[in-house]
Amino acid sequence: MIEEYTDIGATTPEAMEISRKSRRLISELIGDETPDDRIRQRCVIATGDPSVAEILKFLHDPVDAGLKALEAGAKIFVDIRMVEAGVVKKGHKSDVITFIGRGDDLAASKGITRTSAGVMALKEELTGSIVVIGNAPSALLTLCDLIESEKVKPALVIGAPVGFVNASESKEKLREIVVPSISTVGTRGGTPIAVAAINEIINMYARHR
Length: 209
Hints:
alpha/beta; 6 strands; globular; Rossmann fold
């Protein structure tokens, strides 16, 4: 891509130079032709692992969907506080809200995970939103169930839960649904990938407002 890269999360000259140098190095490895490539680059930088680019899947034009949602001031829902802490708070007007802690009474009564209960508790607010899940497969499975039953329709889902219990399956289920999504294949994922993906979309939005 022709334009010079900038990163709204880099607030000092040294930080910006590090960011630009990282981008130059990674773009030579994985390409720099599309917005999807920019997200792949940022996820690779966040993990220090070039192979991450190969497990990222983009379906139903997720970058454009994310940019439009940010323009509309859509809420950004995340599974846990670690993801919330990593999401850039400037350059957009969207609130960042965590699922965990929002449905604890429901979790206790039904015996389900706190993140899954949070998805259920906030389901009335999810249509048109951006949902970012970096750790909790149960939250992603619950979200997919709600989408399939046509009770909610997020603008974008970033699904990158990590682990060996339902992580791979939850992302496979996400990719079977007609919703704009970014996901990882297999057991790999986690907060760094999920945060990198949403932050790159925020960065694109902030640069072209």
